[in-house]
Amino acid sequence: MDPLTLDALDRQLVHALQVDGRVGFGRLAEVLDASDRTLNRRYRRLLAAGVLRVVGVPVARALGQADWLVRMRCLPHAAPEIGAVLAADPDTSWVTVLSGGAEIACMVRAPADSLVLRSLPRSSRIGSVTAQRLLRPVAGADGWPGRLGALSAEQVRALRETGPGEPGPDDRPLFDDEDRTLLPILARDGRAGWSALARATGWSPAAVARRVEQLRRGGALVLEVDVEPALFGAPCGAMLWLTVRPSALAGAGRALAAHPDIAFAAVTTGSTNLVAFVACSGDDALYDDVLLPLGDVDGVDHVDLSPMSEMVSRSVASARPLGRPRGR
């Protein structure tokens, strides 16, 4: 079987879904100048291949929670089993194995004042564990730049015109108990039809549509596109843990945001106060294009690099490409 590749129309489709994850194929056809049947077929092909999906992600603060980045060092080859335990927790957004099986990183949602470490699995195979709260995204919050750029500015504007729009006076920004029935379905398929959502919730299709759009307008629910980075020439993934002087955080964040290989970056609590997710072409690019330029960024005192070995679970988190974490 020939390896799956993306042509220009596929890339436009991915970019368009990043702009509006629930845009209809009819509207896509108008903007992309292609038939709705062709676009539907392209989407289904990528979906069936497991390299693309749209997911609905609840924003942690809208749940009265915060996003926590947890890093565990463990015995060699123990990480996949421990990661599977973490992935089974519904509050875990994503889990990835790092450093050839000697580390795990995961994102969990928990109250901002929570003792997160108490809720994590305990095992003699786990060594050190740290938990850092995500304070603010500084790069990739609107999607990995490496998969954007297929659409013109005019096409992006046209898609946004038919998106959820700005919040209105009746939009409830926070989730309530009734909304929680929507989350597991949208986490699996952010494009689930109104009828399917209505059957799962017991609401009418019109009521479901109205509430989902309210949550999107209010910023409580975001639709994110997971796509395999290798299809964009970026099969190599890594996490960067940076220690940056507080006075230089803003500048370091801007430097990461301008880098095409940075899928997502955020300021966190802890001594490594800036974390970044890299998607690039290979080890040479990781060294030449990512690590070396970081040496010229003012205020970066220390960089710890952890290659990504395996994605145990994708939720949900991330900001972002399939196989690379999202961080809202």
SSE order: HHHEEHEEEHHHHEEHEEHE
- Note the beta-strand portion: 25-35%
Radius of gyration, in angstroms, nearest whole number: 20 Å
The level of helicity is 25-40%
Report the count of strand segments. Answer: 10
Pfam family, one: HTH_AsnC-type
Domain HTH asnC-type: 6-46, 176-216
GO molecular function: sequence-specific DNA binding
InterPro entries: AsnC-type_HTH_dom (IPR000485), Dimeric_a/b-barrel (IPR011008), Tscrpt_reg_AsnC-like (IPR019888), WH-like_DNA-bd_sf (IPR036388), WH_DNA-bd_sf (IPR036390)
How would you portray this structure in words?
The protein is an alpha+beta fold and 328 residues long. The chain is built from ten helices and ten strands. The strands form two sheets. Strands 2-4-3-10-7-9-8-5 form an eight-stranded antiparallel beta barrel. It has a two-stranded antiparallel ribbon with strand order 1-6. Helix 2 (25-32) packs across helix 3. The longest helix is centred in the N-terminal third of the chain and has 13 residues, at 36-48. It is globular, with a radius of gyration of 20 Å. Residues 315-328 have low confidence and may be disordered.
Highlighted features:
alpha+beta; 8-stranded antiparallel β-barrel; sequence-specific DNA binding
